[in-house]
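TASK: fixed-backbone design
INPUT:
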């Protein structure tokens, strides 16, 4: 360590676990990262991605300046040239072709940056477009829809009380690799082991025997895509065997009789063949769930990105409700973050509406103001009024993350008059942009988890200021997005603080707080002042100054019951059988008899990888983090594949080739490829990732398979054919 070496606390932005890190800094370079033992939430936990913070931060392929396309070529440019280009194009396109001509795609890291929590809503309202797409329709939209319908608030997502539960039924999630999702819990693996140590039980439902499944007391290797059937049968058993006990929830429920009638025919015997689980196992899982003193059912990617994703998400909470575990310690509770709206008196709300408008080409209903990403390419390609002519992508790489990347790739190349990417890398998506606006490396930015604190297993709040100063020529992402809001909204050149001041004024008015409060806010930047305001108006009445005085965070205690205050349904109750759900049940019933013969594809995540953008860090590459096709020995033998052979995988959207990895950790009838690979397109600048590009699993999808209620793409349980490649 040189004499100018120092440390700084910093919350890790790389996954939903939000671990506190202690960065070692020499000069302005992050040379190391370890777990922050004083962090009130993570208490020293770190994973290999967090430990590689320095390498990711200093990646030489990160863009250092904006890029602007001139004469067809992306060239380095100044910030003013970049924003001039945006201001010259977007408002004119909107004037000429209407607001729908500009589409927006918001990618996953928006939930991991402070800017992503503060500015996208302002960007969307400045544009006025309904052509809004996000990674949610590749991910958790089914959960938003089921929460919207059940509780009247799409953001009211109950999280399992990991530290106090006695029984966890975990469906389609692998937190030992993912470190958790819609359940922010640093050291998820340790919390699961602690559950076992205190005598609790863990059941895992997953077609793969994952590292998480290996920790479990019971692993049910379900046939992919059939979780909604399993969950309906668990519900049916609870009813039939009189094991339901909603307890104190009873007075808040509506539609219990209708619900029990609606699922009465989903008996374990009826679903067993489709799920490929025997009826006795299903009964046993239901009885164990009901018998546990406190239990939580938790479903994630494998239960969402499937044909019945919304039904499965709904049934997860139905089970929590019928067993009396919703909103009680040890069950599944609604977090209350420090920047949430302060609780109000319980009262009926506006409810949650689906399909208030539809997509232009295929008529997909909106959900939560969004259209399915699967429909983005056709909205660019298909002529007519309302066609997307310009696209703004913030922190997203849909060419790899969404179905049929080749088609989207072509649409971005040929179908747009103008494209902007806010992204640190020139990758498969941003290479099509006319203007690329690169945020600085994370060490140079502040961090606050607006989204993830509202999904955390413990109420707590932490804030990190930049660990090193903003490098000369860099622009903070908050300022980038504020300037983008101004540039698209015809206010190019106004000071970016104008955007924050307007937001502060609007928030004060909405809260009915005195306008003079604006003058009391502290903070070095507009983003900090907005954070200060949200803290002050929030449920704990905190201030930015208090956060700064506690660099390792403030613990706000375990999750507490919040019903009925969270409910925003029209009835003011939990609406157990919402009409759109009831109308979708016949589709689930129709799948009862189905038991397709061929192979189906599921995904997987690797601990040292994250979606499409972490394959460029040498320390995170290699080992088992590879793009192989996992296949069961019996299936491999039948097809004539040996370990290491090249397999050809064919499906509705196309075909790809990958090395076969023969393993009995996938069940028979199922093959698995990870996503986020396929770094072989020209014009990108990710030299390390390009060395071993892998293939894009999403090329197998043609984008037509969706969960109809949420518009979420079917990414798991996709029918495929596998043959040896000759
Ligand atoms: N087959 C299959 N496909 C999947 C999935 C799956 O399980 N299977 N999972 C889906 C899921 S859950 C998700 S969330 C999506 C993700 O889909 P996307 O969000 O579209 O993709 P990412 O790969 O996360 O891309 C993130 C982008 O943000 C950039 N970035 C990184 N840090 C920052 C930052 O600080 N600021 C800005 N502005 N940009 C940044 C990266 O360079 C990258 O371009 O993929 C989905 N696709
Ligand atoms: N290391 C790492 N961590 C990450 C990410 C990453 O890419 N890498 N991505 C982050 C993001 S954006 C998200 S959304 C989260 C996701 O977090 P998780 O939901 O935990 O994601 P996965 O690890 O993909 O686990 C999904 C599991 O579902 C199983 N599965 C597939 N189909 C089915 C099915 O039909 N039924 C059932 N029951 N199971 C099925 C798969 O085998 C897999 O084990 O992870 C986040 N954390
Ligand atoms: S678990 Fe997630 S938040 Fe924690 S260090 Fe790893 S990547 Fe960062
Ligand atoms: Mo995700």
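OUTPUT:
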């Amino acid at each position: 360590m040189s004499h100018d070496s120092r440390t700084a606390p910093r919350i890790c932005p790389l996954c939903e676990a939000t671990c506190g890190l202690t960065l070692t800094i020499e000069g302005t370079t992050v040379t190391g990262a370890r777990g922050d033992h004083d962090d009130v939430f993570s208490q020293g936990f770190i994973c290999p991605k967090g430990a590689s913070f320095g390498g990711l931060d200093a990646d030489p392929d990160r863009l250092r300046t904006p890029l602007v396309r001139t004469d067809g070529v992306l060239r380095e440019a100044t910030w003013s040239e970049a924003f001039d280009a945006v201001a010259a194009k977007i408002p004119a396109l909107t004037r000429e072709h209407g607001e729908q001509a500009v589409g927006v795609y918001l990618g996953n890291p928006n939930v991991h940056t402070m800017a992503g929590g503060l500015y996208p809503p302002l960007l969307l309202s400045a544009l006025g477009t309904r052509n809004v797409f996000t990674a949610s329709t590749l991910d958790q939209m089914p959960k938003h829809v089921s929460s919207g319908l059940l509780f009247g608030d799409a953001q009211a997502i109950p999280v399992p009380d990991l530290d106090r539960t006695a029984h966890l039924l975990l469906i389609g999630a692998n937190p030992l690799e993912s470190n958790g999702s819609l359940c922010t819990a640093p050291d998820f693996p340790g919390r699961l082991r602690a559950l076992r140590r205190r005598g609790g039980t863990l059941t895992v439902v997953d077609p793969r025997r994952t590292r998480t499944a290996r920790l479990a007391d019971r692993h049910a290797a379900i046939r992919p895509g059939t979780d909604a059937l399993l969950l309906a049968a668990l519900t049916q058993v609870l009813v039939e065997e009189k094991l339901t006990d909603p307890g104190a929830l009873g007075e808040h429920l509506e539609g219990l009789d209708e619900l029990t009638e609606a699922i009465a025919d989903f008996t374990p015997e009826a679903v067993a063949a489709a799920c490929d689980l025997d009826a006795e196992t299903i009964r046993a899982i239901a009885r164990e769930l009901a018998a546990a003193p406190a239990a939580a059912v938790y479903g994630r990617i494998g239960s969402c990105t499937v044909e019945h994703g919304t039904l499965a998400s709904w049934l997860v909470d139905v089970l929590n409700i019928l067993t009396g575990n919703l909103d009680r310690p040890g069950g599944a509770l609604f977090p209350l973050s420090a920047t949430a709206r302060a609780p109000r008196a319980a009262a009926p709300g506006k409810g949650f509406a689906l399909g208030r408008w539809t997509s232009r080409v295929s008529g997909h209903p909106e959900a939560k103001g969004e259209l399915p990403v699967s429909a983005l390419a056709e909205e660019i390609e298909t002529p007519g009024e309302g066609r997307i002519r310009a696209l703004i992508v913030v922190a997203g790489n849909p060419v790899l993350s969404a179905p049929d990347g080749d088609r989207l790739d072509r649409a971005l190349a040929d179908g747009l008059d103008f494209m902007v990417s806010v992204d640190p890398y020139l990758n498969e998506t941003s290479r099509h942009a006319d203007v690329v606006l690169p945020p600085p490396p994370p060490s140079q930015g502040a961090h606050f988890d607006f989204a993830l604190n509202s999904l955390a297993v413990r109420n707590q709040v932490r804030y990190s200021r930049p660990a090193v100063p903003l490098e000369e020529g860099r622009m903070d992402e908050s300022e980038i997005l504020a300037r983008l809001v101004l540039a698209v909204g015809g206010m190019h050149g106004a000071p970016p603080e104008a955007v924050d001041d307007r937001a502060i004024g609007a928030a004060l008015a909405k809260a009915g707080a005195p306008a003079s409060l604006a003058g009391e806010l502290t903070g070095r930047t507009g983003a900090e002042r907005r954070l200060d305001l949200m803290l002050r108006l929030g449920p704990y009445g905190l201030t930015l100054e208090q956060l700064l005085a506690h660099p390792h965070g403030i613990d706000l205690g375990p999750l507490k019951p919040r019903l009925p205050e969270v409910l925003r349904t029209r009835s003011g109750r939990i609406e157990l059988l919402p009409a759109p759900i009831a109308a979708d049940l016949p589709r689930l019933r129709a799948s009862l008899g189905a038991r397709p013969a061929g192979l189906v594809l599921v995904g997987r995540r690797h601990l040292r990888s994250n979606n499409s953008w972490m394959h460029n860090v040498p320390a995170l590459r290699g080992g088992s983090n590879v793009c192989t096709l996992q296949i069961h020995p019996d299936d491999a033998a039948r097809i004539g594949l040996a370990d290491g052979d090249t397999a050809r995988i064919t499906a509705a959207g196309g075909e790809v080739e990958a090395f076969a990895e023969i393993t009995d950790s996938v069940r028979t009838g199922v093959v698995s490829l990870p996503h986020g690979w396929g770094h072989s397109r020209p014009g990108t600048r990710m030299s390390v990732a390009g060395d071993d590009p892998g293939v894009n699993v999403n090329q197998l999808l043609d984008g037509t398979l969706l969960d109809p209620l949420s518009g979420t793409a079917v990414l798991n349980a996709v029918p495929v054919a596998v043959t040896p490649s000759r």
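COMMENT: The pocket of iron/sulfur cluster (ligand 3) is lined by residues 12, 14-15, 17-19, 46-47, 49-50, 179, 186 (CB under 6 Å).
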